[in-house]
Amino acid sequence: MKITFPYMGTSHLVISFFLKELGHEIVYPPVPSQKTLSLGVKYAPEFACLPFKILLGTYLEALELGADTILTSGGCGPCRAGYYGEIHRRILHDLGYPVKMIILEPPLVSPRDFLHQLAELVRPKGWLNFAKQFRIAWAKLKVLDELESTLHKLRPLALSKQEITKVYEEGLELIDQARSVKEVKAALEEALSRLHNVPIDPYCQPLKVGLIGEIYVVLEPFANHDVEKLLGEMGVYVHRSIFLMNWTRDNAFGYGEKDVRAAAVPYLNQLVGGHGQNSIGEVVRYAEQGFDGVIHLAPFTCIPEIVSKSIMPAVSRDKGIPVLTLFLDEQTGQAGIQTRLEAFLDLLRQKRMKQEAS
Amino acid sequence: MRVGIPRTLSYFTFYPLWKPFFETLGAEVIVSPESNKELLDDGVRNTVTDACVPIKLFHGHVAALIDKVDILFMPRLVSLDGKSTLCPKFLGLPDMVKYSIAGLPEIIENRLDLKKGKMELYRFLYGIGRRFTANRLKIMHAIYRAKYNFANYRKLLFKGLTPVEAFACLEGGQEPSVQLIDGALKLAVVGYPYNLYDNFISIGLLTKLRRYGVQVVTPEMVPDKEMKRLSKKLRKNLFWYYSNQVVWAAIYYLEDKNLDGIIHLTAFGCGPDSMTNKIIELECKAKKVPFITVSIDEHTGEAGVETRVEAFVDLIKRKKGMV
Ligand code: SF4
Ligand code: SF4
Fold first, then answer.
1. Do residue B138 and residue B206 come from a single domain?
2. Does ligand 1 have an atom closer than 6 angstroms to the CB of A303?
């Protein structure tokens, strides 16, 4: 069994570690690129959402590299993501790849299925080893989130943006190499202290922007044209609403961030799948916390975010917080995004100046 | 009291339920005009550009009712079978409309979620009834009449009538006889009821096919029992009610040896259909049954659809040696 898996943000560090320690041979897919996307676009339905296309492209690339098994997640709706695996399988089989797909459904939805699929992954080295490695993988997920959020805070202040990005990547490397919970913790300490050693301008008062929207395009830099880094380098503090851990936790245990949803209720009193309702709630919360603005990312044709976008103008007006919605598809270019971001940041700066003047 | 019902989306599934219900409660039911260009343009102006055509059109229908009714019926339909939900855009529909169109009258936006149990439909209707009368008996009577009419409606569908024909029939019109010409082509036209039976959206697809002498079958004509059987056939069902109906119906008709082809009617920008369409395409491919997708958007011209469908019918006829 030569197993591969899709990218989403830094999650591949943990997934590949875990699979390797469980005793599997891994085929690393290439980092998503324009080529990946073109492949996906070619074989995916036209109106499939962007993540679907990138994933399909990734699978095709990995299959060319010799993978014969794909590990991915399922889900129970109401959004499309939970059905991706089924359609991917049909498309790949139709293209003549006899690939096997291990689709992990949320354990609480279908415990039997979940255990069944899990058992297959655990088989080579047994459950004891699984328990041990699971703890390490879990620890890694947590520290990856911490490292990233620290990077978000420091990047706008750093004197050299290049340096801080480099130091962060070294930190990822350290965490990747850790082989026990203790080592993971030590790696984090080390990575954090290195980040804090990068010279910063302590007097800088960066604009504060919240980043919300559909999980995949929020987490995967290729899908969002590295918007976090772009903003950080423009000297903006980006607070991302979604991290790997809150996603892993919500999906594994079936409960969500209740208070974010509660904040959305006056505007949208209904779960609409994906992060649709969260997006509304998060704008409310960012406004309350004095953020300057919110950037809302969504794939083109994304159902929940179309719902949230329709309601967004009302929330933005009521709460007095500007929101920039970017719908991303295969035609979106980085230059276009950059221009729109710059215009948006100008607006935020003016707003702040007015506030300070009054 | 005048109750406004937009003539789209769930209208084609439930009108025979809503109408007697409100009328028995003593209200006057006002339906928006048949879909047309102005309604759609109006809807397009009032919605985010990224929405699908049916949602835009819905906004147009709502706008058309604004000054004509006292209360607008726009329930939040969450689950109709206790298992799947509707497309997320249905789930957020009342909110989308409220924040997009100004000057709306009072709205009935009760939630119908059969995941909460079998009695939900009663609770839903009862809750609405209370807004019209305090008389419990009157509400129960309205529910009874609604369900009775609805059951009759479903019977007509299973006979092969389209919803619009069935509506006319229930209002006292003649029951059109569904006559079969010997050796006629049999095509399944699958898609959401609000696309199939809205003549403006479908650009008269069903009528056209019938004019060519084709026997047309649609998802609404598949008996409940069969749907239930088919609901266990896929390794994993879709999450959306109407999408499942469409896929199951396609599989049902594919079991029929006499079926000559499938047409999937889909609207521009529809998220669920990117998946539905792929499944149907591959199922048809496996069975070697001819298949086309007819996709409609704000600008689809009548001529384009006509040529495509004609070519498809000709292709099948040639394949069967009929020409
Ligand atoms: S949330 Fe949006 S992008 Fe993600 S699967 Fe659903 S429709 Fe696609
Ligand atoms: S199912 Fe498709 S056409 Fe219907 S509301 Fe949803 S996205 Fe629109």
1. no
2. yes
Q: Is B73 on the interface with A (CB under 8 A)?
A: no
With helix as H, strand as E and coil as C, how does chain A read? CEEECCCCCCHHHHHHHHHHHCCCEECCCCCCCHHHHHHHHHHCCCCCCHHHHHHHHHHHHHHHCCCCEEEEECCCCCCHHHHHHHHHHHHHHHCCCCCEEEEECCCCCCHHHHHHHHHHHHCCCHHHHHHHHHHHHHHHHHHHHHHHHHHHHHCCCECCHHHHHHHHHHHHHHHHHCCCHHHHHHHHHHHHHHHHCCCECCCCCCEEEEEEECHHHHHCCCCCCCHHHHHHHCCEEEEECCCHHHHHHHHHHCCCCHHHHHHHCCCCCCCCCCCHHHHHHHHHHHHHCCCCEEEEEEECCCHHHHHHHHHHHHHHHHHCCCEEEEEECCCCCHHHHHHHHHHHHHHHHHHHHHHHHC
Q: Is B115 on the interface with A (CB under 8 A)?
A: no
Does any CB of chain B come closer than 8 Å to the CB of residue A302?
A: yes
Q: Is the pLDDT of residue B162 over 80?
A: yes
Output the pLDDT for position B135: 94
The reply to whether residue A303 touches residue B273, judged by beta carbons under 8 angstroms, is no
Encode pLDDT of A163-212 as tens digits. Answer: 999 999 999 999 999 999 999 999 999 999 999 999 999 888 999 999 99
Confidence band for B123, pLDDT divided at 50, 70 and 90: very high
The residue whose CA is least distant from atom 2 of ligand 2 is B270
Range of the domain at A316: 206-358
Cβ contact (<8 Å) for A270 and B99? Answer: no
Q: How many domains does chain A have?
A: 3
Across the range B117-133, mean pLDDT stands at 93
* Number of domains chain B is built from: 2
Specify the pTM. 0.91
Q: Which chain A residues are within 8 Å of B282, Cβ to Cβ?
A: 90-91, 94
Q: Are residues B44 and B76 in the same domain?
A: yes
Distance from CA of A176 to the nearest CA of B (A): 35
Q: What is the ipTM of this complex?
A: 0.89
Q: Is residue A230 part of a domain?
A: yes
Instruction: Say if residue B62 is in the same domain as residue B84.
Output: yes
Residues A112 and A43 in one domain: yes
